[in-house]
Amino acid sequence: MTERVAIVGSGLIGRSWAIVFAAGGCEVALTDSGDGVAERALSLVAEGLEELAALGLIEQAKSAAGRVRAATGLADALEGATFVQENTPETIEAKLDIFAALDRLAAPDAILASSTSTIVASRFTEKLKGRHRCLVAHPVNPPHLVPLVELVAAPWTAPEIVARAKAFYESVGQVPIVVQSEIEGFILNRLQAVLLVEAFRLVEDGFVTPQDLDKTIKDGLGLRWSFMGPFATIELNAPDGIADYCRRYGPTFARLTGADPNIFAGENLDRILAQWGEAPKPDQVAKRMRWRDQRLAALKAHKRSQPER
Ligand SMILES: NC(=O)c1ccc[n+]([C@@H]2O[C@H](COP(=O)([O-])OP(=O)(O)OC[C@H]3O[C@@H](n4cnc5c(N)ncnc54)[C@H](O)[C@@H]3O)[C@@H](O)[C@H]2O)c1
Q: 4-179 maps to which CATH number?
């Protein structure tokens, strides 16, 4: 079945979502409360699709653009929509208003997903009849180039809605993660916050210049991070995997950050190991290291081929 997506709010993020969904084969209706905004978004969406096609990331830019229309208003956009991606301004008042309207006007089985960066869904969906079909689906700007989507359910969101949303975002090439319960900043911005606070402190205390700090990420940590996360990274950085790494380096990391060293041991470590799965055998580690090094080499070649700015 072709999904029919309503994009509610066709600014920066709404337009980029339209590219994702159109490229993924969906019928897309754009709407915006601003005069002419949805209509103007059409040409920006078409341009974005052309750029993806020029890079070989999608095949049929023109037919994808043909699946996107500017609706005459909210009710028209929601007509027949199976999935709604809301991208209105980041205020609680805006989210309360628009979700009340969406719940009233959208088909009862349509999923209502908010792009909000900071507001948990329980703050703007509690009173809604259809609150079970509402959730946060937080993208990273611009979602047509950065695929991560953080799915954050309210306590009353039905598990099958989260499962349907996850399958849907995967079907259009995004990478959804499920945040297991509501938390301010979700996951990405909490990680970013810790890094940024430490960066500011290190500069403030005169240990490094902002330029050298940036090099530490873009020519250091960030290279690996573009294709493996911190858990996959540390698994390869000690001979016997994550547990071994935690034994060797956990106390040091705890001391550097003022964290309780027990987060690297005991029950928490057991939980992480149980969720992560078996430690790889030495031959698997060697194979994975070769894979990592090939990816790093390819990335190095790509970076060398690009101007610095
Ligand atoms: N910009 C980012 O980097 C980023 C990243 C992730 C998530 N988000 C989230 O996406 C959402 C949208 O952000 P943006 O950057 O696209 O903002 P934006 O200002 O570019 O776009 C918002 C659009 O919503 C329209 N609008 C306002 N009220 C409306 C209504 N009632 N019905 C329909 N349209 C309405 C406005 O006219 C505007 O075109 C916010 O919740 C924001 O937190 C933004």
A: 3.40.50.720
